[in-house]
Amino acid sequence: MRAHRGPSLSLRHLLIALTAIGLLPLAALGAWSVHLAAEYHQSEQERALLDLARALSSAVDAELDGTVAALASIARTPALVDGNVRAFYPIARDQARAQPEWLGVILADGDGNMVFRTTAPFDAPPQPVADPSSLHMALLLRRPVIGHVARGKGGRAAVPVRLPVTDAAGHPYVLTAVIRPDRIVRTIARQQVPAGSVITVLDGDGAIVARSSGQAEQVGKPPSPSLARLIRLNGPEGAGPTVTLEGGNVVTAYTRLSRYGWTVAVGAPPAGWAGGPGFLWYGAGIVLSLALSIGLASLLAQRIVRRIATLVTGAAALGAGAELVVPSSRIREIDAMGAALRAAGARRAAHERDREEALEQARQAGRAKDEFLAVLGHELRNPLAPIAGALDLMDLRGDEGSRRERGIMRRQVAHLKHLVDDLLDVSRIASGKLRIEVAPVDLAAVARHAVAARPGQPIRLQAPDALWVAGDEHRLTQVLDNLLSNAARFGSTDTHVVLERVGDEAHLVVADNGVGMEADLAQRVFEPFYQAPQPLVRHSGLGLGLAIVHRIVELHGGRVRAYSDGPGLGSRFEIVLPLGAPPSDAAPAAVQADSRPLRVLVVDDNEDAATLTAAILRQLGHDVRTAHTAAAALAVQAAWPPDAAILDIGLPDMDGYALAAAMRRAAVKPLRLTALTGYGRQAGMAAHTPPDAAAFDLHLTKPASVDDLRRALGAQDADTSADQSPA
Description:
The chain is of the alpha+beta class. Strands 1, 2, 3, 4, 5 and 6 form a 6-stranded antiparallel β-sheet that branches. It has a 5-stranded antiparallel β-sheet with strand order 8-7-11-10-9. Strands 13-15-16-18-17 form a 5-stranded mixed β-sheet.
């Protein structure tokens, strides 16, 4: 666009010229008729102020009607109609949050006692009802009542809007919305009134609800004495001179015709009129001046509006991220605004570029973290596999001389595996990938099995014969194992597990007599990696077990809390889960291992792990051969076709999925394939699986137990529940 040439003008100069054009002729002609028009203008002013007060009173009533209508709408919800106030509580809370001016919703019963308030939990102790007189008035009159404005404990002014309601059983209630007067303040702020004017809204008790000036300081206080006297002496409506709270002299008109008993008063500075018999000349002059002012103002306004319209278009383009085109202007202020918009557009484009770079870096960091954890789990599990295999082999050989040492080593191996699983579980929690398989679970059986699995730990169990919930049995077992392990690590010599039904919920409590904890620690024990301060923490662990417990319970729709009476007084963990229905059909029979001797091929690049796995399988009566690369495995298969193969995923020359596909294609008889790896099924090499690769019959995570190896050789397909994917 071609740039304008010539002198530039400031917007201030244009407005001064416009004001002078409109006011100078009026000032010259007004001197003739000020005195004659004094009484007329005063009466007109009072009438106009009274009309404005009436209009504002209607607007205030409309605002209050809107609140009453909103209350009536939520009062018609089925929960309240059925008298189910607990179910009605979240509906009222959500409604209160959806209304910007609502501080909260209160429900009171027919005796005037508070049932709940949405600013506190449902079961919070009831508080005394503020402004009880309006509450009792609503119960007595059975119609909406607006209470008195008051400041709460936080210093915020609020007005109770009360609506009497009745449920289907005929029980009376009063539903109250506690609202800020902000919308009323905005309503009066939109009024076009002369400078120095004051608009005041008073409640039924005569206290200030909203005021066009000094709102923050004056709300809840009485009006000026002169306004109070004017209202007291003149009935429902009136007008007259008053003095504002700031000390200014104004002409005030008021009305008390609101349906809710409120008063609206509008005060404006009195127009000082004096003059002679030149009213007609004044009238003609005012008309001529207005016409001339409007004509000149239109010309100037068109110029200003055109320039401002370009700024509006530019601002909209800036907000939408579109190309910004703002032409220059001969008005300096508008030109400066255009330059600021152009600079903002440039900064926004640079910010968007930086933001995209940051997002890409974050995505790359997330991928690197996932890959690191997958490799970490693999590398940590790999050395555990031969250790666990050696222990299993010694158990199978019945070596009694090292029973105690094997027990110590097995506990430490189990502890290391538990740490790895916890670390990977926390990674899944952080990425939102932790999932549960929901099915009917007998929580009583889970508790009995978890306690029976710890014969060396002093545990007392109190549980019913059966208590069914809907959840993931493996994950619920993990929850109880983590709590019992936590009790043992922190010195418990008497752990008490109590499972009972309370209403429609299952309550599981694990209490111990260990070291206990401070009250503030009980609020933080479910944070990942959080450890108690010294001297409490003298035990191994990463601080992850309770964080995993918290997330698993959340995924089951339950809640968990920690309690302690203090250091040395033990701890108590309470889990609450919703009840579920028992299964309609019997559970499928467990997979049984094939009892006949099999040819088994073990493929693992870790020679120790492969050797010990093969030794265990030989001890079980099978014919076993080993290979440490995919090529060697295919060569063994060609010369010695196996009945089953146990494959590592991370092989040096070919990943386990590709090897499984190749062995399927080369098999001359039925072949059962099992993945035994430090990776989970969805981690590591799985991303590179060929499209035609056959699935494994079973996935096992290192270190595998003897029972896991028996399942690996089973005659039918096995479940893959042993998979512990770090994805």
